[in-house]
Amino acid sequence: MPPTTHSDVLWSKIHLAEQRLSAASDRFWNHPQLATLYPSFLIQLHHIVCGGLDLMAFAATRAASLTHDPSAVIAATYLRHHIEEEQDHAGWLLRDIATLGIDPQQVRATPPLPSVISLLGGRYFWIAHAHPVAVFGYLIVLEGSPPLIHQLDEIQRRTQLPPDSFRCLRSHAEDDPAHLADLNRTLDSMPLSPQQSSRIALEAFATIDAVADLLDQLAAPSSAASLAPPVMVATDA
Hints:
By secondary structure, this protein is an all-alpha fold.
């Protein structure tokens, strides 16, 4: 049976492209020097979380201005709520990064990689110049592939990094399925035009490419290891 809801249609498209992200994710999380790369991953994730909050606020403001567009009205309501849900995550990441011997000043002084700029900057353009519902393509990819608890347990054992450096990722593993269900329901409640639906799918593809690029950039021999100092491994694992 062909997909019948907006979220079903979107996921049918995402599944055609997600191998790109799966392959990059496998390369990163199975990298032989993952313990060295992981601090840089968390730092870049902190940039994404901080930038993502600003991105959602921009999309919510833009959506709220389109008072005669029912999809925009629904988007603005959802985004305001989701910003509240995500508000503390940047602080959680700083807490986790601190367990690796990296202070907040170092995190903020580390520049975002080009893929992070692409990930966030491209979404701003299409929110501003197409429609704010474009942000849902970004959100559904980031919320749609949460790490599993058992995978994080295995990564922690393999890297021997402090268990507390995985607290924020564990929270996402627990919360993202519910967030994804809420995203799907919100999409399905919108009277999206074909153009809006297409834009969301294109933003999902762009997000897949940017996140895959980020993981590949982090794993590149000359990049990630220089972004953060060496860390102490756990002694009680």
